[in-house]
Design brief:
5-stranded mixed beta sheet; elongated; ATP Synthase, domain 1; 5-stranded antiparallel beta sheet; about 130 residues; alpha+beta
Length: about 130
């Protein structure tokens, strides 16, 4: 019988590494499910929630965003930050915070790129022909 092992890793270390019955995750196109025997895939995960089911029941993971790599029955999730709990109410605030933080960083980066582009254009206009 096929197995599905979920491994969640952050820069701080390994957060979770156990067999699971299923994984529900979200990429930029929407929610998708993983069951044992699923073909290999790679997905970019936005900041948000991931759900899994193991022998203890449902588990919830708040992610700051990351990469999901499924190969040969091993589902590896690499994230900058992640929080794991068995209580959905407990993770709601954490997911909201991670999502807000990700949006704030994206807005900051957009502002920096805009400023750099404006400065480059200003220099091009001021240079003698």
């Amino acid at each position: 019988m096929s197995r599905l092992v979920l491994q969640i890793r952050t820069p701080a270390g390994l957060l979770y590494d156990r067999p699971v019955r299923r994984v529900l995750a979200e990429d930029l196109s929407g929610w998708f499910g993983l069951l044992p025997g699923r073909s290999d895939l790679v997905a970019a995960l936005p900041a948000g929630l991931m759900v899994f089911e193991d022998e203890a029941g449902e588990g919830f993971v708040g992610l700051s965003g990351g990469i999901l790599d499924l190969a040969a029955g091993r589902c590896r999730v690499m994230a900058g930050r992640a929080s794991l709990t068995r209580d959905l109410d407990e993770i709601a605030d954490e997911v909201a915070r991670l999502t807000r933080s990700r949006k704030d960083r994206a807005a900051l980066h957009r502002g920096l790129v805009h400023d750099l582009a404006r400065e480059a254009l200003r220099r091009l206009v001021q240079e003698p022909a």
